[in-house]
Amino acid sequence: MMSIFVTQHPENLVDGDENAILIYYFFSHQDEKRSTAVAVLRSLVYQLITARPRLIAHALPYFDIASRAEQAISSLEILWTILRKMLNEPELGTVFCVLDGLDECAEPGLRTLVMRFVELFTDKEPSAASINLRLVAVSRHLAGLQKCTRINLDHEHQENVVSDIQRFVVAQVENLPTTEGFNHMFRAHVRDTLLTRAEGTFLWAGFVMRELSKMSTSIEVYETLDELPPDLAAMYGRMLLQIPSRHRSMASKILRWGFQDFTLGRNSHTTTDLDGAGRGSRHSSLFAVD
Known about the structure:
The chain is an alpha/beta fold.
């Protein structure tokens, strides 16, 4: 949820700006293939080629023969070299990069990947790559990332999260309709109920406030509060059950496709899906993740 929110701001900046690119990767500890440094670099390279097809020129020298191509596509060092060359393009523009769950990247690749990014931003002479790249890593503490923008998810910051949720709920409750029955005592009850049941979860609080904003009377708000599921899993179930039965099969297919395409960092495509990179270049499919 945090990473989705983080990507929204650069998406707004990139939208309509031909000199800006947004790329991102969502690590998943549940899939070993998608939690490696090689996987993230392949995905970032692919996304850059998709956005700027001419950048494939930096990759082609490593894929002139089959044996070299096989080595390059599985080599962290070669993929990093390709990415670095792409980022060094003087006319590339600004590249916003969001890495979610970086701490879930498998070792030993994680250590090397962090070191490469740190080197990129700490060189005595700033390179075009360090100027072009705006990196955000959503991660628990990792040594060496101090130079990078980082959203800290460590448990010792839970008090700050709870405080932020409290501010969010208070502000949202104040925005509820001002019709009869929505007095100070009523708003205090709604606020206290939400803060008690949210249990430090922004997403649950956001879903509930969206439901309450549709209500027009205090009775409807009370009834909705009583009926709302106690956790996110039940909340998702409620949302799915609200889909008309005739649309559920299609909704299921869309959700499965969206989960693979988005939460895994745009790298769950088949080779056929990736053939469009480079505007039809036969080399673009080399970066597909099996």
